Amino acid sequence: MDSQMDTAGKTKIESAYKKSLATERRRSIWNGVKRDRFLYLLALPGIVFFILFKYVPMWGIVISFQDYSPYQGMWASPWVGFEHYIRFFSNPDFLILFRNTMAINLLSLVFFFPLPILLSVMMNELRGNKFRKTIQSIVYLPHFLSWVIIVGITFLLLSTGEGIINQLLVAAGLNKIDFLTNSNYFWGLLTVQSIWKDAGWGTVLFLAAMAGIDPQLNEAAKIDGAGRFRQIWHITLPGIRSVVIILLILRIGHIMDVGFEQVFLMTNGAVSEVADVFDTYVYRLGIKQGQLSFSTAVGVFKSLVGLILVVGANKLAKKFGEDGVY
Amino acid sequence: MLQSKNDRLFNATNLFFLIVIGLVTLFPLYYVLVVSFSDPAEFIRNKATLFPKKWSLDSYRYLLSTDSFMRAMGNSAFLATVGTVLSLFVTSCLSYALSRRRLQGRRVMMLLILLTTLFNPGIIPPYLLIRDLNLINSIWSLILPALTSGWYVLLMKGFFDSIPTSLEEAARIDGCNDIGVWWRIILPLSLPSLAAFGLFYAVAYWNTFFTALLYINDFNKQPLQVLLQNMLIDSSTASGGTAAVEMTAEQQIPSETLKMAAVVIATVPILMVYPFLQKHFAKGAMVGSVKE
């Protein structure tokens, strides 16, 4: 009897204790919220922004599983499951889009990606040189121009009519080259444009990382008889290793992304076969032709692959002992 | 210590290649300037010259007297100034709140913000949202969805983390609340960082093209980049229709010089803020590079 009462009493006390702990905790949370009410007030506009413009559109993904009709809305449109996804994968367009996206991105990975590293090593070797500031200002500049302007300049330089390059070719007794309307040149042209626009800007981070390298390392290497190339190889490049890896991860994560504006503006009828990428396809079918559900499915597919790639690449980086992005 | 022969050779070669890179970068811009200042008739006759034989301000004079061009400039100026101020406000408020370790729910909020940088729902769902909010053809459709981004918030929070808390405590003793601390202590201390972020926001707003293509159909509300697209790229096709046709029909100015004058005018605002902010680039570069 006694022991039974005991245990009953114990559990009673315990549950009362737990309850008071819970109220205590609730009260302390509430106190914290009250104490920090001004902080929450500061955070409010940003939180509203993220909910409205980031999370509400995520909810909009449901229309890729529907036959969405603007008149019925998201709540009343009929459900069709994965029909749009299946239709997209069995569509011959899918392979073309995939090929173009991969081609443009692999070219950028091979030709664009190493350039800022090379360029920043070269600029870093201008230590204490007044010329360095000037060259920095020059190579950063194109990054700030819009794609509309850059494509406009491309036309000015390369068109077969007034383009200065073609006029120089003619003056040299050569044939004109139809850079803009020959699909053989399209991917290369995009790569060159990206290099002109962003290779210089890409050095900012590397230069910042290089500025953090202890100059004593270079002094010591010099005393040991290392030339400039050996110093670059054994000191400068290892010093930016983690930045390179982080940027590589991000780059790989975005391998499904091709800058929409650049491709959209450069496209013309003659090159559409090599120019169509996921984003331009979504724009054309979704916005122009009103196939909202189908093009949402295309967009979701693209984003999902991107998500898997970023997370995967990040994991891989951590395995190699780097910090990763997250 | 004397420079060795190898060192001098290395430096000279390096300098040489960098000068070549600089010239290659500058050439297209230089040529744009030359064309824009060329006499229109002279340009038609001689086409490509590296130095204008006959200078002329006709193209500029004409553009600056065109209603559609000036209206588009005005729209973009509004977009860039109002957008930048609002963006800096929203980003710095939220980042500051998240940088205070005592804030409850901070981890959850940061996780949810991080998720938005990993996954985006594409083009169509945001389009439907803007339509449902009745923002189509409103300049706010170009500002509100671009107010901030997960990257910017997380990066600015990182910056605020590095400000010592003793400053905040001192201000509290003097009677500041959190908003006061943010406004009177934190923001003045972060001016260099705000300048860098401000430049990136301003350039992004000034260069807004894609969202304007999606959300703005009204010709009078178009920002500069859409008008430029009509002028520079779409003018030959039937769909262009609007600005370029209107312009060339009104007056017989050959399009190439006019186009390049428009490019120059559209670039000037960026060039004007650029020298003042260049030294802060590195701070903001984390943002620029990861956002690509």
From TrEMBL, chain A:
- Report the domain of life of the source organism: Bacteria
Task: Write down any Gene Ontology CC term.
Answer: plasma membrane
Q: ABC transmembrane type-1 domain: from which residue to which, for each copy?
A: 98-313
One GO biological-process annotation of the entry reads: transmembrane transport
Q: Which GO terms describe its molecular function?
A: ATP binding
Q: Where in the cell is it found?
A: Cell membrane; Membrane
Q: PROSITE patterns attached here?
A: ABC_TM1
Keyword check for Oxidoreductase, yes or no. Answer: no
Topology of this chain in the membrane: Multi-pass membrane protein
Coiled coil (UniProt feature): none
Record field: transmembrane: 38-65, 102-123, 144-165, 185-211, 232-256, 292-311
Keywords annotated in UniProt: ATP-binding, Membrane, Nucleotide-binding, Transmembrane, Transmembrane helix, Transport
Please name the PANTHER family in this protein's record: POLYGALACTURONAN_RHAMNOGALACTURONAN TRANSPORT SYSTEM PERMEASE PROTEIN YTEP, PROTEIN LPLB
Instruction: Give the protein family.
Output: Belongs to the binding-protein-dependent transport system permease family.
Question: What protein does this entry describe?
Answer: Polysaccharide ABC transporter ATP-binding protein
TrEMBL record, chain B:
Q: Does the keyword Transmembrane helix apply?
A: yes
Which Pfam families does UniProt cross-reference here? BPD_transp_1 (PF00528)
Source organism superkingdom: Bacteria
What are the ABC transmembrane type-1 domain coordinates in residue numbering?
Answer: 73-277
Compartments where located: Cell membrane
Recite the UniProt keywords alphabetically: Cell membrane, Membrane, Transmembrane, Transmembrane helix, Transport
GO biological process terms held by the UniProt record: transmembrane transport
- Keyword rRNA processing assigned to the entry: answer is no
Enumerate the transmembrane spans. Answer: 12-33, 77-98, 110-129, 135-155, 194-216, 257-277
The name this protein carries in UniProt is: ABC transporter permease
Q: Name one GO cellular component term.
A: plasma membrane
Give the species this sequence originates from: Paenibacillus crassostreae
Membrane topology qualifier: Multi-pass membrane protein
